[in-house]
Design brief:
0% strand; globular; mainly alpha; 15 helices; 80% helix
Amino acid sequence: MSGPSLSPRAVTGATTEPAWLRRTLIAVALLFLTLFLFVPLATVFFEALKKGWDVYLAAIVEDDARSAIRLTLIAAAISVPLNLVFGVAAAWCIAKFDFRGKSLLLTLIDLPFSVSPVIAGLIFVLVFGLQGWFGEWLRDHDLKVIFAVPGIVLATVFITFPFVARELIPLMQAQGREQEEAAVVLGASGWQVFRRVTLPNIKWALLYGVILCNARAMGEFGAVSVVSGHIRGQTNTMPLHIEILYNEYQFAAAFAVSSLLAGLALVTLGLKYLVERRVKAQLSSARQDDTH
């Protein structure tokens, strides 16, 4: 015996808000975005260019600025590939295999999301600093981690390693194991299965995770600030260099370097939007295949 059915008009009325409420919510959202997103972005570029192109370019090509840009690119160039390899390996293990400690691995992947970046930096100081666990050994072997490039890279890797894995895990779980198992039955090797079956199925989610990872690596401040030592021309990344310029009242130079990070954010946002559409379509297709 079936229950009473609702008419299409009743269903529509239950899920449709009044026009005035929709317009109000849209207006509030646009006002919020204008005040907290569009106006700050416009202010950054306006202040950066307010004194002219000559001042803008001089602030960017200045020695300390170039050193900060170079160090930021180095940290991102090392941390992103490492996190790409880790993310693919972790997602593969979690999505394709059942093993003891699987939930623990998932928890550890999320650890940088729950730990303050400043605390992460302090952990590295505790471990690799002069008074840390390995400080004496590093000093005896003339190796420097804290207040040097290795410490900045380590902090950046730690902060960014969840991004690739967290994008791949839901997609690979939705896709299941059937295609890989079929490839193995047909005689494909492990590398062939990954290259010809798994990688084509995850390429858009992988690219999406890399974009987010790179954006966070280049914009990280808290953890890097603790381990860098703020040595001008040596251990300052772009965010740290901007802070120093601003504290010294060099506002035009600070906003000039900030515009580079703001431009990176806009490019990342555009790429994120394009790739996100592909990822959603891919994930939806995987779930439909799984239901069938």
